[in-house]
TrEMBL record:
The keyword NADP applies. It comes from Natrarchaeobaculum aegyptiacum. This is Peroxisomal trans-2-enoyl-CoA reductase. Its main location: other. GO terms for molecular function: trans-2-enoyl-CoA reductase (NADPH) activity. It is an enzyme of class 1 (oxidoreductase). Participates in chain elongation of fatty acids. Catalyzes the reduction of trans-2-enoyl-CoAs of varying chain lengths from 6:1 to 16:1, having maximum activity with 10:1 CoA. Has no 2,4-dienoyl-CoA reductase activity.
């Protein structure tokens, strides 16, 4: 038997949980980021989404507005600090004060460490770690100026348990985890909290392109106590919780959403 599906967040949390907040979700046009962006809107927050391509951002922005809150969609390459600063200016001009940052933009491909080119390393670590740092430092300064806020970064289970063919991704995600702990320590006195959500293997178009169905089946059989892959909906409740006043005393924490992937396999 598999672990059951996570219920929709509207069955778990108050509809006005995040009323009056504005969330900025990078990579908010696809996969986990899209699910999170819509959930923030469901719970009353205005939502800004940003990534390189407007093609998938626009329909999500429309779906956010359909929920009766304000939306902003803007392009950014998180690897570029100037671009990130321009993104924040656009968001502040269009939806005002940002109180929640979700560092969700990510990149990955599977590659044996000895075959990874310098550019291949840079493209993944640049997106995951430099991207998260660029957004955290830029938006973090705004959060400090406004007197507080919440940062949630999407880590990955490969940050605490290395995985084959994940040299670049695992190292980048380990850096993300550590960066969240550091800013949590530095910025608590400014009312800013920072936490990491670490998905295991979540069925999104992005990850299925990377791993394919055959590897996915192998991971389910050998690695997942849950006996199923995760879904973007599985990542929503813990991220909303960390963004909300319910997590007022939670900072520098690491929450795996992995169906037991980090548990040791059954020794039989
Ligand atoms: C064995 C299974 C173990 C299972 C363990 C499970 C652990 C789960 C943890 C999962 C962690 C994280 C998962 C995710 O992040 S899923 C989200 C994935 N989504 C995406 O990746 C979407 C975005 N993707 C991209 O933008 C691109 O795919 C890319 C990452 C490649 C970046 O594109 P960009 O345009 O910047 O880069 P280029 O195409 O120009 O390539 C740059 C260099 O990278 C080299 N490259 C690209 N793909 C590969 C490949 N498949 N193998 C080897 N090298 C690759 C490319 O050749 C360029 O380098 P060179 O110039 O030197 O050729
Ligand atoms: N799915 C999974 O199994 C797991 C996912 N994660 C993490 O969760 C997050 C979301 O994953 P998932 O939904 O699967 O990924 P997707 O592939 O669906 O989404 C990645 C998003 O990041 C955006 N993005 C990529 N590069 C950049 C860039 N340079 N600048 C701005 N935006 C960028 C993409 O948009 P665009 O192309 O428009 O730029 C896209 O919307 C990622 O951080 C990922 O590493 C962690 C562990 C497992």
């Amino acid at each position: 038997m598999s672990l059951p599906e996570t219920p929709p967040s509207m069955e778990l949390f108050a509809p006005d949980l995040l009323a009056g907040e504005t969330a900025l979700v990078t990579g908010g046009g696809t996969g986990i980021g899209k699910e999170l962006a819509l959930a923030y809107a469901d719970h009353g927050a205005n939502v800004a989404i940003a990534s390189r391509s407007m093609d998938h951002l626009e329909p999500v922005a429309e779906a956010i507005e359909d929920r009766g809150v304000e939306a902003c969609a803007t392009t950014v390459d998180v690897r570029d600090r100037d671009d990130v600063e321009a993104m924040l200016e656009t968001v502040l001009a269009e939806v005002g004060d940002v109180s929640i940052l979700v560092n969700n933009a990510g990149a990955n491909f599977l590659c044996p460490a000895e075959e990874l080119s310098a550019n291949g390393w840079r493209s993944v670590v640049g997106t995951i770690l430099d991207g998260t740092a660029n957004c955290t430092f830029t938006v973090g300064e705004h959060l400090i100026d406004r007197g507080g806020g919440a940062i949630v970064s999407m880590g990955a289970t490969n940050s605490v348990r290395g995985a084959p063919y994940h040299a670049h991704s695992g190292a980048g995600k380990a850096g993300v985890h550590n960066l969240m702990q550091t800013v949590a320590a530095e910025w608590a006195r400014h009312g800013v909290r920072a936490n990491t959500v670490a998905p295991g293997v979540i069925r999104t178009e992005g990850v299925m392109d990377v791993m394919g169905e055959t590897v996915a089946e192998q991971v389910i059989d050998e690695d997942l106590a849950a006996d199923r892959l995760g879904t973007p909906a599985d990542c929503v409740p813990v991220t909303l919780f960390l963004s909300s006043p319910a997590a007022a005393y939670v900072t520098g924490a690491y929450y795996a959403v992995d169906g037991g992937q980090l548990l040791a396999p059954t020794p039989m």
